[in-house]
Specification:
2 domains, 93 residues, 4 strands, elongated, 27% strand, single chain, alpha+beta, two-stranded antiparallel ribbon
Length: 93
């Protein structure tokens, strides 16, 4: 894939999702946390299966709720001319 000239990270929403962020009062400086449920698996001859709990390793075989990323809002862009600069983003239309 060819790099996009002037690319910079962006998070965009449209329609109902955009309205939800607006109604929640999301502003520069706010932080989004990305989290999920994780559990260890192992590959077997039959496919993948969950790892069973073993020994003193707390993480082995337990369900884990993990924060795996975050994003801090740096700028809100609402001007259509500015939004067009992010033509490569799926919500830039």
């Amino acid at each position: 894939m060819k790099p996009v000239k002037g690319w910079k990270p962006a998070f965009g929403q449209c329609q109902a999702a955009e309205g939800q962020l607006r109604n929640a009062g999301v502003e520069p400086g706010d932080i989004f946390l990305f989290f999920g449920w994780f559990r260890g698996v192992e590959k077997t001859a039959e496919g993948y299966k969950y790892v069973k709990r073993s020994g003193d390793d707390f993480y082995s075989g337990n369900d884990l709720q993990v924060i795996y990323g975050y994003m801090q809002v740096g700028e809100k862009i609402t001007d259509q001319e500015q939004i067009r600069r992010y033509y490569w983003h799926p919500h830039s239309s």
